[in-house]
């Protein structure tokens, strides 16, 4: 992955001729030296941000601002092609395989609402405000409006790690970011088509949107299930890593070639692999895969945000700060005027979202590297393109630093969750139970492969079984005892609601699968599913 990151930093794409061969070695040496300096700087930033308790990505951007482009090789910088075709698939796939699909199912209506119509309406409002306030051309304002509707999940999740938030809210934020990236890319493609062709009909636009989303979903399902089938034949961590890298990057490129949404395809493929593929592997292989993709996502984000700061000229930043502040006001206005009304309508066909959670969706509307990459990828003949790039870069900087630093404080002030000693004790018991059962599964795999003698297997298995029995006994006693106060009762009820939600979703999935296979009648299965939906709606948010 270090080599991949180095490739992402290398912008020079000149072919090697006889005269250029002598300069290649010095170029590569300079690139490696620059890479080492950036890695050391990122390490120092990580230490400082941890000590100061500020988001890591904000520290990277501020550190990048302190570096002038002149001290680095000319080949080092942000390349939109590299970001869109290499870094973006890695980030999307890493987020998708770590997404809890059972919880995502319970929030899909909400996510689809704010990541579909919400993005479109917010982009239109933002574009109208920018056109009115900054005097931009219509096509230019439309492009900026779409670019500034993309939410940077990395910054938001980094804030969530410092302040506890409900798991369902974190799932909503992650799921929305996964889908709104795809929506924004499709809309920006339509705007580019309008600019290139000069005319466009609503029917053609709707046709392209349907093809992009449906085609991307079908492509992601196909390649995801293909990867799952290969997982059944392999249980080697290194081979599976290569397979997942090939699927993530290959899915994105195939989607681009056939004209469907590459981002949606990668999302669907990642969800399928994360949900079904990892079931076909041993516990150690799964841990290795997740660790690799966590490192890949972390490394990609490290270089992107560091380069964001390096690419921005401080003088240009100072000149464009007033326009950037206006742009922040514009996209936040678009977010407010779409999110609150749409989530109010949500209560008529799904569980309503608590108002404090809606505030987090507004406050967490932070911009990031993808917005900058899309700005760099705009057509060269777009009116005011250079000013657009400077405006977007400055807006991203203001958003990352301003919103990124204040978001943890604001989320903490909302008091979304109040951890208790009871909940912490319960999580400790669950941790022991989950870890011990995972160890037993790995022991069984080692015994079956002949890597472990049976006597040692039985000894280690018994030790894990004792740990399981102890945790299970304490959990049983915990659930059997009566809570002594209302707060403990609410804490216990919230946890039980979370468990019931997972069970109801599992039942619903099994019934729907049996219906598709013709094992159940439509009338019987639908009545049972409706009863399950009513039970899900009755559960409180966790």
Automatic annotation (TrEMBL):
<keyword id="KW-0813">Transport</keyword>
<feature type="transmembrane region" description="Helical">
    <location>
        <begin position="110"/>
        <end position="130"/>
    </location>
</feature>
<feature type="transmembrane region" description="Helical">
    <location>
        <begin position="209"/>
        <end position="230"/>
    </location>
</feature>
<keyword id="KW-0406">Ion transport</keyword>
<dbReference type="Pfam" id="PF00999">
    <property type="entry name" value="Na_H_Exchanger"/>
</dbReference>
<keyword id="KW-0050">Antiport</keyword>
<feature type="transmembrane region" description="Helical">
    <location>
        <begin position="290"/>
        <end position="310"/>
    </location>
</feature>
<keyword id="KW-0739">Sodium transport</keyword>
<dbReference type="InterPro" id="IPR006153">
    <property type="entry name" value="Cation/H_exchanger_TM"/>
</dbReference>
<keyword id="KW-0915">Sodium</keyword>
<feature type="domain" description="Cation/H+ exchanger transmembrane">
    <location>
        <begin position="40"/>
        <end position="412"/>
    </location>
</feature>
<feature type="transmembrane region" description="Helical">
    <location>
        <begin position="78"/>
        <end position="98"/>
    </location>
</feature>
<keyword id="KW-0812">Transmembrane</keyword>
<feature type="transmembrane region" description="Helical">
    <location>
        <begin position="30"/>
        <end position="48"/>
    </location>
</feature>
<feature type="transmembrane region" description="Helical">
    <location>
        <begin position="55"/>
        <end position="72"/>
    </location>
</feature>
<feature type="transmembrane region" description="Helical">
    <location>
        <begin position="355"/>
        <end position="376"/>
    </location>
</feature>
<keyword id="KW-1003">Cell membrane</keyword>
<feature type="transmembrane region" description="Helical">
    <location>
        <begin position="136"/>
        <end position="158"/>
    </location>
</feature>
<comment type="similarity">
    <text>Belongs to the monovalent cation:proton antiporter 1 (CPA1) transporter (TC 2.A.36) family.</text>
</comment>
<feature type="transmembrane region" description="Helical">
    <location>
        <begin position="260"/>
        <end position="278"/>
    </location>
</feature>
<protein>
    <submittedName>
        <fullName>Sodium:proton antiporter</fullName>
    </submittedName>
</protein>
<dbReference type="InterPro" id="IPR018422">
    <property type="entry name" value="Cation/H_exchanger_CPA1"/>
</dbReference>
<feature type="transmembrane region" description="Helical">
    <location>
        <begin position="388"/>
        <end position="411"/>
    </location>
</feature>
<keyword id="KW-1133">Transmembrane helix</keyword>
<keyword id="KW-0472">Membrane</keyword>
<dbReference type="InterPro" id="IPR038770">
    <property type="entry name" value="Na+/solute_symporter_sf"/>
</dbReference>
